Structures are given as structure tokens and as C-alpha cells.
Amino acid sequence: MLDKHQILQNTFGFDEFRPLQEVVVDKILNREDVLLILPTGGGKSLCYQLPGLLMDGVVVVVSPLLALMQDQVHGLTAKGIRAVMMSSLQSYEENNQAEIGLQNGEIKFVFVAPERLQNEYFLEFLSSLDIAFFAVDEAHCVSEWGHEFRADYRQLGLLKTHFPEIGVAGFTATATTQVEKDIVHQLQFKDKNNIIRGKVFRDNLFINVKPRQGNGHSQLMDFLQMHQNEQGIIYTLSRKNTESLSAFLKEQGLKARAYHAGLSTEERHQAFNEFVNDDIDIMVATIAFGMGIDKSNIRFVVHMSIPKTMEAYYQEMGRAGRDGLPSEVLLLYSTGDLGLLGRFIADIENEDYRNLAYHKLNLIKKYAFSEGCRHQALSHYFDDEMPKCETQCDNCLNPDVERSDISEQAKMFLSTVYRTDQSFGQGHIVDVLLGSKNQKVLNNAHQNLSVYGIGSATNRVIWKIIGDRLLEIDALIIGEFKVLKLTDFAMEIMKSKQTVDIRASNLQTQSKALKPKKIAKQEYEVDEEIFEKLRALRAEIAREEAMPAYIIFDNKTLTEMAHFLPNNEASLLQINGVGQIKIEKYGERFLELLATLRTEDFEEPIYNSVQKPVVEIKPVKKLHATYQATLALIEQNISIEEMCQQRELALSTILAHINKLAEEGKIEHTKRQQFFDTVVMDEKVKNWILQGIEQLGSVDEVHHQLSIFKQLNQIQ
Ligand SMILES: [Zn+2]
Asked: Which of 180, 190, 249, 542 is disulfide-compatible with 549, CB 3.0–4.6 A?
């Protein structure tokens, strides 16, 4: 029989193990539970594939994404190893064949989604097999403290309950100490100390982080100049931005393409293949792109705005340079992004998740503003320690000795936060410092404060930079609704017990880059089209009320609105220049318009499983006769089955009628629920559909694919 070194050479083509691989392989062969935390590109999959080949029995691999499973199966098959995935993508027949193959011992690796393991039938089937061990890929999904928590993963403790003697091996690229403890606890490891952690430091990546100027296009072009004919990924926050940026890059003669969850499956496949085959150089993508991508020659990764967590940032930038060759990453950030992400967070209903999300956002903000070694900061975040990289990040390479003392300005800023009862965001604090006469200042009588106008000698841009610096050094923290709060450290600064300084160049570049006249426009990245639509509504109202447009909302307010796209009264109130009276007069109409602008373009970050569904109900004036007929039956209190029979209609049609009638107010919503509660859907079918939706993005798309499938296979 071959030993591990021979398999490493024959099957995988390597002469020697990479750091940590051999340790993990040995532990798995020894049937221990083990958790491996290794950065992307460290060679994780080999760690479970190789021992699988040496052991008797089948390896059950749990994976969160169908695309990931598919890649792994293809990879193994290419090496001549029998592997299958059992999922909603396979037909009943294919899954059946897989079961037979597993029973006969012909298949070595089976990939399954976590939800399948909650199925009693499947668990029973597994217990009839000879299992070598369980591998749990992307194990950080187990933990609520991680960045991609999945409820199905949390149930994976059942592996140990059902198969106490079989080893479990967990794999992830990113986990803090808190997350790793949670993983071994949830997976019920026998030895909870069996954790192996790779170095966080990716020494072939050069990290740049810069404040974004305007839309960042010119900074991006400077960067791309250094990477001609190389492949890379550019991440943006919204779908619309991917489209406009890729169009811009094409105009510059670059081979770029947009990728986001709004594209059809076919378009996404095509884009993916073009990128993998080097037909295009630059993929401009939302976070929807990249998980499980197995392309080793990505030379650069750019973030056009700040990612929502350090984990996401590290994982996304980690897609560069997996072949170990020098690669470069760039993050362009602005305080506007933080406001936008903060607003998404404010919508999270669960308080614990919300606070955690704020906490994580504050940490990445601190990272972006930091003047220390980037690699050291990342290592520190993931509980790994290292000295300064010296050569592989912007801060180490350009240690800026010239510093400006801003203690006096810091005191003014902090005092203003204090005098306004720590209840306002940065924009308002700056307004008070500058002595602005805007509505929000006057409504709160802040013109009467001693701090009003004390900062008028310094311009708005510089005040923003000073505010950011105070956040960075933890003199301030951001609470809900972007409200600034003072820390103990702030008190020491105000009492002159501490000084505050900043890189002199930070004050210079910014003030040079932004011309005071255009501040309102420059402050936020704004989509012209959205701005114009808001302006048109304002003009309409101005005509109706026969008053100047700027009295309704000034341009600055519209700019902020266009940037933040508030979706309820509370968030609309956070916009400068929007007070209670204006909300009452115009709130509804603007929110209505904003809702239409928002849904089309914004790909919201998803925080854990908490999402707010947006249901739009459009009134329909006349009720069609067919609904009337169903309504008559409902009033007779007969069962849904009987309704289907009497009306000779399908169950789905009757259900659609009931929904329609409830929305029209013809029947009570509780009544509707009573009917719905009597309809029992097969769990397997339901899960199959839910997975389809997850895979394809919408139920319509599932429907669409089904129709295509029907036609192709000539099914009536
Ligand atoms: Zn460094």
C-alpha cells in the first residue's frame, strides 16, 4: 500500500507537504477531531483528501455552497478519484445512483449540504456505511460570532451524537480565538484543544489602504497602470456600481466585466468562465463573487469601498496571489461607506447581532484609518502575533515622520459632542462647530451653545478628518444611527491629560483634493440618475406648493438622500436638513420614491440570517369574477381541498386567490393563515425549493429554469 508521501507525489503532484498539512493529515489518520485554520491558498482541501485516500470507508464532506461542492467534485474526478455530491442539483435518480455507489464502496468522497444531515432518512443511510471521517468545510459558519453564520451549520453537533466514534475535521480560512472555541464546542470535539492555526501573514501580498477621493476612478487607474495585462478582482458595494465601473474600465480599453447576483445564472457562468480562462482581465463584482474560486494567478484585489467585516476583507483580498507570487491589494475607503453600512446594520432586528455588526464595523474602520503595519493588524485581529512586516504594506514602506498636533481641535470636537448630549452624528457636530444655520441646528437650539461656531477657522473637510482620527484612536465610538459617543479616553483629552496628533500628509492631501465649493457633492458618492429623480420630485412639489425648490430640501439634503437612500422615517430623519415638520409634509412621497430607487440597485450585505423582507402591495380596484367565486366558497367555510374540487382549479391557484383576497382586505389575514396551516408541504420538496432559491437567487428564476428544463426534455 502507498504511504502518505507517495500519494502526495502520485496523486497531488507535490514533493513535500506545505506547513501544517502533514500535522493535520496525521491527526485525521489517527482518528482525532481536529480544527485547521489556514488562510486561503494554504492548501486546506489536500488535508482531508489525502487521508481519505489512505483510510478505509467514505469521507463525508459538509459544505455550505453548491458551487463549492461542484468545484471539489470536479477537482477530485480530474485526479481519478470517485466523488459525488448529493444535493438539490442532482435528480432523484442521480442521488439514488450515488447511494448505491456509496453502499458498494465505489465512491470515496460524498459532498453534502448541512441541511441534508438533519434528514432522519439520510442519517440512517449514513449509519449503514463505513465512514472514514467527517470533514466540515468553511467551519466558521458554525459560529454565531463568525461572519457567515448559518443556522444549519449550528446543528452539526449531531454528527457526534449519531457517530460518536468517528472523527470530525473542521476547516476554515478565518476564525478569531472566540470563533474557534465556539466551533470545537458546537461540533462537540472530544479534545477541544486540537486546533491548528496557520500563519495569518501572507507575505506575498502587498497591502495598500487609502482614503477614496470622489468615486475613486482616478486612484484606481493609477493602480491598474501598475498591473497591465494582469488578472484581478475589483469589489464594489452595489450592483449598479459594478455595471458603471466595468463600463468605465472598458472605455479605458481594459478587458473588464461586471458580476453580481442580479445577473442570470447563464450570464454569471459565462463571466466566471471568461475570468477563469483569462479571456477577461478584470472582474468587477459584488461580494456575490469569489467564494470557492480556484484561480491561483489573481494578481490584485481592489475594494472600492470598505467591506463590512475584517473577516470578509481578509477572505476577499486573500483571493490574490494564491500561487505564492507577489500580488497587490488596495482598499479605498470613505466615511460615507461607513454611514451606508451603519444604516444597513440599524435595520437588523436582533439586538445581539446588531451590536456585533456595529462592533465589527468599528474594527474594520479602525484598521482602515490605522497608521500601523497592516499585516500586523490583520494578524492581531485573528489572534496571531507578528512583528511589523517592514516591506509589505503602505504604512511600513512610507513611515511618515512629519506629524501635526491637533489636540486643540480635538478638544473642540469632543466638547461639541459632549454639549450636544452625545446624541448626534459627525455631520451635525461639524455643523455646530462651523456655526451652520441649518434646520437641524436651529431645531435643537444648538446655536445657543458655547461651542457653536468655535471651529469656523477650520474647514469642513478637515473637521471630518479630525473626527475620523478621534474615532480611530477610540476617543469616540459610533452608536446606533451614527451617533457619536465619548469614551474615557476622550475625557482625558478634554482635560489636557492626553494629546492627539495625525500624519501631516493626511491633512494636506485631503484639503488639496477637495475644493470647498464642491463639498456637498464631493462628500458623498452620488448616482446622478438617482439625484435627478429626487430633484424632479422636489420640483413637482415646489410647483404644487408654489414655493422655491430649495425651501423644500436643499441640494445638500438631496445629495445625502441619494447617497444613503433611507428606507423609513427614522433613517430619513438622520439626513441633514430633514426635520419632523418636513417629514410630515414630504416624508411619505420621498420615501415612496426612495423605495423604488433602492430596491433596483442595492445589494445589501446580509448579516447572519436576519433580513427584512420588503413586501409591496399594490391596490387593485376591481375584483375579478374568479376571485369572487373563490370568496363565496371561503365564506361557506369549506376546506381548501373542496374548493379545488368545486372550482376545478389547482391548489396553487386557490392559494393565489386567497393571497389576493387577503391583500385586498376581503378576508382577514388570520383567516388566510388558518387556511394555509391546513396545507402540508413535503419537507424534502420544500428544502429542495429553498435550496433552488438560494442557488438561483429568486423563486422566479427557479421557475424559469424549470420551464427551460421542461422544454429541453420535452416534458409536457
Ligand atoms: Zn507592514
From this structure: 542
